[in-house]
Write a structure and sequence with these properties.
seven-stranded mixed β-sheet; 48% strand; mainly beta; 122 residues
């Protein structure tokens, strides 16, 4: 499966953005999906994940209550709604697909998008 992330940009602290990740292939609905991010000079970190059917989600503590992951299998797309953005949310955001399980661990994801940059100004 090929993934294309979009929706990043520059936003003021307290603002919102919605990231999208479009997937190719007819098997999208069978993959658990995740969002990760990498800030400058830091390691990639887990943000959120969702099961293949969208029934369960899991978030990093740092974004819980502010970010929402969702998916539309009919559109082969997963979303990350980001509200109440903070300067520390600045990072390149990556979407990823796992054919095995929904997980917070990047090693579980076999497919990755190219990343989209989110910059939050304080």
């Amino acid at each position: 499966v090929q993934l294309q992330a979009s929706g990043g940009g520059l936003v003021q602290a307290g603002g919102s953005l919605r990231l999208s990740c479009a997937a190719s292939g007819r098997t999208f609905a069978t993959y658990a999906m995740g969002w990760f991010r990498q800030a400058p000079g830091k390691e990639r970190e887990f943000v959120a994940t969702i099961t293949w059917y969208g029934g369960s989600t899991y978030y990093a503590d740092s974004v819980k209550g502010r970010f929402t992951i969702s998916r539309d299998n009919a559109k082969n797309t997963v979303y990350l709604q980001m509200n109440s953005l903070k300067a520390e949310d600045t990072a390149v955001y990556y979407c990823a697909a796992s054919g095995t399980t929904w997980s917070r661990y990047s090693d579980e994801y076999a497919y990755w998008g190219q990343g989209t940059l989110v910059t939050v100004s304080s």
